[in-house]
Design brief:
The chain is mainly beta. It is 0% helix and 48% strand. The protein is built from no helices and eleven strands.
Amino acid sequence: QVRLVESGGGLVQAGDSLRLSCAHSGRTFSRTLMGWFRQAPGKERELVATISAGGNTYYADSVKGRFTISRDNDKTMVALQMNSLRPADTAVYYCSADRHNNVYARSPDQYEYWGQGTQVTVSS
C-alpha cells in the first residue's frame, strides 16, 4: 500500500511563492507517474501538473510558466514550486500517484493513490 503525505501549504499574498512537497512511502516510486491536483470550494478537482517516471512533465494552461513540478527518486518525493501566485490558485492541493505511469493520465479516476491534501490560500 502506498501512502502519500503532502506538506508546504499556507496563506500567502498574491505574487508570492510556495513550495509543496509530497512524500511517497512505496518502493515503486521510481516507476510511478506523480501528479498534483487542486480543488477549490464548489468546483471539481482539476489537474495542475504531472511528472512521469522518466521526468516528462505536463502543466495545466492556467499554471504554465508559474509552477514547476519535480521529483527526487532517491528521496521518493515530488515537489510543486508555485511562483507568482494568484487568488485564483486558492484551493486544497492533492498529491496523487498512478502506478501505471500513464503519461496521458489527466482524470482523477486514473490515479490510484492520494494524499490528504494541503490548503493553499492566496490573498489579493
